[in-house]
Inverse folding.
């Protein structure tokens, strides 16, 4: 299937849904975290679908892969921040575990897209 627009990508859609899910959780952290962990979580969550979209709009497949790598890095950063939030007792283990499962799914989807694009380059 040829994707005409990044909004058609399932990975972008899931990353958008994930960012929307994470936001209300992060804004419930203590006020002292507003400019720290809350802000970092929201920026990381926003960065994942943003980099998928930006990469899709680039001129070369190599550039696209590069931005998907940035999205993966932001996803790892987000997982780390969510784990810190759990350790700080801002979110319960059950919420943390559910969010990490969703993050892992997005990570697998990103890996699959990267692999498909790399095959395109070598063929």
């Amino acid at each position: 299937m040829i994707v005409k627009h990044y909004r058609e990508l399932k990975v972008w859609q899931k990353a958008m849904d994930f960012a929307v899910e994470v936001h209300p959780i992060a804004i419930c952290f203590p006020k002292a975290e507003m400019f720290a962990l809350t802000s970092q979580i929201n920026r990381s969550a926003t960065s994942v679908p943003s980099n998928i979209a930006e990469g899709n709009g680039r001129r070369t497949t190599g550039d696209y892969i590069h931005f998907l790598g940035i999205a993966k890095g932001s996803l790892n950063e987000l997982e780390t921040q969510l784990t810190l939030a759990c350790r700080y007792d801002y979110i319960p283990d059950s919420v943390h575990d559910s969010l990490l499962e969703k993050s892992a799914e997005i990570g697998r989807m990103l890996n699959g897209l990267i692999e498909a694009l790399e095959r395109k380059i070598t063929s």
The mean pLDDT is 96. The chain has one domain: 6-122.
